[in-house]
Amino acid sequence: MWSDIEFLNSDWMAYIIPGSIILLVIFIWKEWKTNSGTRLFLLIGLTVISIGSLIMLALKPAVPHLISGDTVIILTKNYQQAKLDSLMAIYPKAEKINYYETGDLTDSEAAGEVFILGNGLKPYDFHKIEAENNPNFIPGEMPEGIVQLKFSQDVSIGDSIKIKGLYKKPVPGTRLVLEDFTGNSLDSVKFSETNSEKFQLNAKTTVGGNYLYNLTLKDSAESILRSDVLPITITDRSALKILILNSYPLFETKYLKEFLGREANEVSLKTRISKGRYKYEFVNTESRTLGKLTAEFLKDYNLLIIDSDYLDLLRTGETNAITEAMNTGGLGVFIQPGEDFFNGRQEIIQFNFVNDQNAVRLNFEASEKLVKHDYLFSSQETLIPIIENKGRIYAAYKLRGSGKIGSWVLDRMYQLVLNGDIQTYEYLWSRVINTLSGKKSIAVEWKIENFPVYKNEPVSFTLRTNFSKPRVQTGYNVPVPLSMDTEIPNLWSGLVYPSKTGWNHLAFTNDSLSATDYYVFEDSSWEALNNSRIREANLKRFSNRSKENFPVERLKPINQLWFFIIFLISVFFLWLIPKL
């Protein structure tokens, strides 16, 4: 019993105990001078009791207590009946709430103990469960179907749609088919495992717009078992005007120039052969004079690709011109790094790096063929990743005015072409070029945090912009309140509740060209994926409280009234005894 006692205010003990000892010593010293014999020991005993009572009132002792009443069991989707029966056997008076039917948690607010069974609460309802309820999450079995999904919702014409995911408990022989908006099959994978199986699907884009692709599960007879919509925004790939400046001939530039030319981009290349001598090449564009860099000259280009050694050769006026072209003209700049770039002085903008000799690890098999410098980007508040995996940043950029400047730690990319892996080569370069090129208005960069998104449920989004007072409104012209990140000044976040399914719109009123669309699904869409993500969120939120063993104990404070009564009685006799 006594060994089980805990103090709710144990943090105060370091102050209360020394103070109580000092108070006790002072009282004993005072009584020692005026009393003796039995009376002295009686007064000391009463003093110890009174001070001890005050200590108990302050520290609030508590003992473990088996919860047997005021128990609420919240049933969510995919709960297991056997676990519910076990709980009801222990807590026969427990109240059940069918959250998956009503979404109402009102009756749990005054509960002494809360159990959550199944996939769990939707994350935006976490606040409805009071922390003192000590909620216990008892997860159900993993949903069957697509439980993990990764794809880019925004691509450019000509880029590949890359879809990766994990299918839980597929039926061997069934096929997962990627279909375009006309119903044509673009790619498929046949399942052979019975537990779980990773899949990857790819398709080339040909036309621009907001389109609804489908991931369709079919059996061996080609009958449709399930189909889920995959919303993808495909932007027009207008020809980019790209200027490449090299301090010496590079194999990297040779293959990059060919790739950019195949994509119908206009490429101007200036290569330093020796001191004062340059070689000029032009692809898909007429030859022109490539002289001193000025802000006016750079206005004609969407993207500047420059190696770090050439950057060191520039005069101050030319680096200032690049900065001005980014700030006012929206120029994108990509720095091809040399070894000195990671350790030496960096012009225009500062990137931080950390030593890293590990191999490249990305979410596709071809990443094993990639080579990098012995560095990784170090996280910074203003750094925005382009290519990363599990916190390891391989390519990134920073905003500079209305433009962008970026680089990467990858090296000898041309080896992918020599090894015949042109698809990976083009994919990685396209990620960087499309991000930095500034071919569209970059007054704001949107990111919808949720997927999938459902009607009348909160949709959180973030945006990056250099506007000091950004304004956003919905497709119904309703203003959306924004909050600024406390650490990153140009990062803002907002929350909307879409009232209709299908494509929805967010407008940036500071710049009419900067808007974004997002898709709102029917409640039955992406059921396994949504349930899996809800389950993971609940496991994370209640991970330190999940219990599979019953019954459950909580600390119950000892009634403070007893200590108060003991204190009053002891003080009364301390007052009375000297008067006798």
Query: What is the tally of beta strands?
Result: 35
Uncertain spans: 546-552
Lateral arrangement of strands in the main beta sheet: 17-16-15-18-19-25-24-23
Q: What would CATH call the architecture of the largest domain?
A: 3-Layer(aba) Sandwich
Helix content: 25-40%
What number of structural domains do the residues give?
A: 5
Sheet with the most strands, sense and barrel status: 8 strands, mixed
Quote the distance from N terminus to C terminus. Answer: 39 Å
The computed structural class is alpha+beta
- The CATH topology of the largest domain, please? Rossmann fold
Organism: Christiangramia crocea
Protein name: Aerotolerance regulator N-terminal domain-containing protein
Keywords: Membrane, Transmembrane, Transmembrane helix
Transmembrane segments: 12-29, 41-59, 561-577
Your description of this structure?
With 580 residues, this protein is an alpha+beta fold. The protein folds into five domains: 2-65 and 558-579, no CATH class; 68-141 and 530-548; 152-231, Sandwich (Immunoglobulin-like); 241-436, Rossmann fold (3-Layer(aba) Sandwich), CATH 3.40.50; 444-520, Immunoglobulin-like (Sandwich). Helix content is 26%, strand content 34%. The protein has 13 helices and 35 strands. Strands 17-16-15-18-19-25-24-23 form an eight-stranded mixed β-sheet. Strands 8-14-13-10-11 form a five-stranded mixed β-sheet, with no helix packed on it. A four-stranded parallel β-sheet has the order 4-3-5-6, sandwiched between helices. Strand 33 (502-508) and strand 34 (515-520) form a beta hairpin. Keywords: Membrane, Transmembrane, Transmembrane helix. This is Aerotolerance regulator N-terminal domain-containing protein. The chain crosses the membrane at residues 12-29, 41-59, 561-577. It comes from Christiangramia crocea.
